[in-house]
């Protein structure tokens, strides 16, 4: 399709360099080709990137891009391949960029040809407004960012900038000791073991099969997906075991945010009887890394929310929840079931932004 010298077409091998250059230029990033390959070419859920990536070309140059991240999702009693919109890019030189996004999206749906029965995503404010008006976004709810403070160091620095360093360091020490004691007093399974692993092992698929009925809709967390998603060294993998059986896992990362060190619980899944033990193991690791506070994103109706509250997490009114939208794309989807937040399990690791 050509209009005003702009051609819209599916991705073809060799486009990735121009796409990545456009991404870095528009978003002021420095994403490498290796990261692009990991995200789109090596994704275990994507057999053919041309089904998931559409570009706009003008005079031989790529000036627009719309893509979905293919994701295997448990939907009811079957597995489908859903799409998560990511990396929507329009060159600033393009006039009427919003209309071009709508055209890219329409062509994307055409070439996807029903492969994805629905889409889901976590749009920022600008993308949300465009999606609601042009792309059929429907609101699922919010990913609430639950908060637990492990040290008062950063809070003291922020509120009392003239406070002597020795007082801040002493307060940091005492808050760590207090949290160690609080974690030790948590009701835990004494036979459960939590350890750090370099990757997920062959027990993962058996664990997934045993626990996948916990939710109606969630990303398929099998061996191939988890090792692909969390292969980067920025993540730390925790394995929960009991009598050599895999009982759960957690994935975390730590980032510096201003004057605070923040721990993120990216992904978490466990048998009910070992949830507290797994949370405790993760919190101990964060304490060892001098993390100031921990964040964990969960939907408001997720049963895990009660366990995290039990271990001291709370909804922080000052931290904005993450909006979640869904888009039914085929008639085979039960819209009522899809839009019922109680059916879903989502965490930071399901998003493209962490």
- Determine the structural class based on helices, strands and strand pairing: alpha+beta
Note the gap between the termini.
35 Å
The largest sheet is:
9 strands, mixed
Tell me the fraction of residues in β-strands, as a range: 25-35%
General shape: globular
Mean pLDDT over the residues: 91
- Helicity range: 25-40%
Task: Report the order of strands and helices.
Answer: EEHHEEEHEHEHHEHEHEEEHEHEEH
- Detail the poorly predicted runs: none
Number of alpha- plus pi-helical segments: 11
- Rounded Rg: 22 Å
Number of strands: 15
For this entry, give a set of tags.
alpha+beta, nine-stranded mixed sheet, six-stranded antiparallel sheet
Brief overview:
This protein has 354 residues and is an alpha+beta fold.
Task: Characterise the protein shown here.
By secondary structure, this protein is of the alpha+beta class. The protein is built from 11 helices and 15 strands. The strands form 2 sheets. Strands 6, 7, 8, 10, 11, 12, 13, 14 and 15 form a 9-stranded mixed sheet that branches. Strands 1, 2, 3, 4, 5 and 9 form a 6-stranded antiparallel sheet that branches. A hairpin with a 2-residue loop joins strand 3 (53-58) and strand 4. The longest helix has 20 residues, at 165-184.
Walk me through the topology:
Layout: E1 2-3, E2 6-10, H1 16-27, H2 33-41, E3 53-58, E4 61-75, E5 78-90, H3 97-112, E6 118-121, H4 125-134, E7 138-149, H5 153-159, H6 165-184, E8 193-197, H7 204-211, E9 217-219, H8 223-229, E10 236-242, E11 245-257, E12 260-270, H9 275-288, E13 293-299, H10 304-310, E14 314-315, E15 322-328, H11 335-338
Helix pairs in contact: 6-9
